[in-house]
Design a protein that fits this description.
It contains eleven helices and six strands. It has about 270 residues and is an alpha/beta fold. It binds adenosine-5'-triphosphate and magnesium ion. Adenosine-5'-triphosphate binds next to helix 3 and helix 6.
């Protein structure tokens, strides 16, 4: 299944031909929630070893349209992870001081330290998607950022930070339902912004911008996965599975410990 979700380097995500309602062969919610719980435990254990090893780090980048469930995925990934070695970092529209620097400045500063598992809720991909659609910078500027992003993520990989990127693929109709629910439910209304409707009206532009950004930046060092996001239980399971598999491949090890400690008895 993971192979199917991966955007092979050199190819594009072909979002239009992917089913956002795909259940990935799962029987239903019960099966999914059992498997999710087991995977979350595994992610917690592997991150514990990553933290103990203190050599490498993992950065999970989440992108997706409004209401695609980025918060839900961040929570699902970090559910069983020790708070000491993990963070979830949201990226909002840049502040004045942030705009006074290059677009990767604030992003680089938030990357994980050795041993950490960090989830980016939005990221530098806003600088080639939102910036492009909203016309905040000229094309010559955002277009050359694809190369900057590939180099930046390569730098992170070379220096010990594995990067894995998840695009939460939501259908336009499911977004309508989710946004309506935000409006109708007093407990969710605070999440709704008027701007969400303007963003929704430009759905096709965002989709085209994502299509190109993902095609330009899915690399061996920092691959993109497309996660079907119309059903929260499929979305969370698939996302946590990608993270678990990435950690398995890293195979973090407990450090050997000082030889002098061998056989020492605490009185
Ligand atoms: P939710 O999905 O729950 O609504 P959110 O991530 O949309 O959460 P908001 O505060 O609603 O949080 O929106 C953040 C906004 O900041 C988005 O519209 C996003 O496009 C914008 N943004 C983030 N980074 C940048 C950037 N570098 N340049 C321009 N806009 C950005
Ligand atoms: Mg929002």
């Amino acid at each position: 299944v993971l192979k199917r979700l991966l955007v092979a380097p050199g190819s594009g995500p072909q979002l239009a031909s992917r089913d956002a309602r795909d259940a990935l062969g799962l029987e239903g919610k019960t099966e999914a929630s059992e498997r999710l719980a087991a995977l979350q435990t595994e992610v917690g254990e592997l991150q514990g070893r990553l933290w103990a090893e203190h050599e490498r780090a993992l950065l999970v980048v989440l992108q997706g349209m409004d209401a695609s469930g980025k918060d839900g995925v961040a929570n699902a990934v970090l559910r069983e992870v020790n708070a000491a070695g993990s963070r979830s970092v949201p990226f909002k529209a840049p502040t004045e001081p942030e705009l006074d620097h290059d677009f990767l400045w604030r992003v680089h500063a938030a990357t994980p330290g050795r041993g950490e598992l960090v989830v980016f809720n939005r990221s530098h991909y806003e600088d080639v998607v939102a910036v492009r659609v909203l016309g905040l910078r000229p094309e010559a500027v955002w277009r050359r950022r694809f190369g900057h992003i590939r180099d930046f993520e390569r730098l992170l990989a070379d220096e010990g930070t594995q990067v894995v990127k998840l695009f939460l693929h939501l259908s336009r109709d499911e977004q309508r339902k989710e946004l309506q629910e935000r409006l109708d439910d007093p407990a969710k209304r605070w999440k709704f912004r008027r701007g969400d409707l303007e963003t929704r009206a430009r759905w096709d532009d965002y989709a085209a911008a994502y299509e190109e950004a993902i095609a330009e930046t899915s690399t061996e060092a920092a691959p993109w996965y497309v996660i079907p996001a119309d059903r929260a239980w499929v979305r969370n399971l698939a996302a946590v599975e990608v993270v678990a598999e990435t950690l398995r491949r890293l195979d973090p090890r407990y450090p050997p410990g000082e030889p002098e400690l061998e056989g020492l008895v605490v009185e």
